[in-house]
């Protein structure tokens, strides 16, 4: 046809035509893969548990971490539960992008109940005080969002708390954030966190 002939005239040899067709097929394959990946990411469904509150407006990465926590609670594997709690705490506390304001402190469900008020006040005075400044100067899109948490090391330990000794774990973690106008070096990227275990529940007791 005329259109086919016009199209073929853009190529000098059969090899050019084949090369072009391969490039187009590869593009379609890549686009199909990207679309499939996006759909899979959007289909992450949060799995609740009876021990910790569901996270508020979690990212897909956070949902996956919380789902792992829910699974390990069912298995009663307290070593894995402790690791999951440490990871979920980091996602929830250090992400500001999903918070409503500078007093909307994340991660509190992973603390002992009698530490929540004290910790909240500390967080608002220190880390969360940056919320309004970031929004006003750089925009809400620049609020930090944790996209990955990696456990670099894990040590079983005895934890002293309220004159009692509990089994627990200390974790060294590295944290990655979504790219924003805030330089990475200004964000907390290495964390040491200790969890204690009491009554089949892991709780964050120390964050450095």
Cα-to-Cα separation, first versus last residue: 71 Å
Which of globular, elongated, flat, extended, rod-shaped describes the shape? globular
Q: Strand-and-helix sequence, N→C?
A: HHHHHHEEEE
Strand arrangement within the widest β-sheet reads 1-2-3-4
Quick one: biggest sheet? 4 strands, antiparallel
Work out the strand percent. Answer: 15-25%
Average pLDDT score: 87
Write up what this structure looks like:
This protein is an alpha+beta fold and 208 residues long. The protein is built from six helices and four strands, in the order ααααααββββ. A four-stranded antiparallel sheet has the order 1-2-3-4, with helices on one face. Helix 3 (60-75) packs antiparallel against helix 4. The longest helix has 29 residues, at 14-42. The protein starts with a helix and ends with a strand. 24% of the residues are buried. The model is unreliable at 1-11 (pLDDT under 50).
In short:
This protein is α+β, with helices and mostly antiparallel strands. The protein is 42% helix and 22% strand.
Write the SSE topology.
Elements: H1 2-8, H2 14-42, H3 60-75, H4 78-94, H5 116-125, H6 130-138, E1 146-161, E2 164-177, E3 190-198, E4 201-207
Antiparallel strand pairs: 1-2, 2-3, 3-4
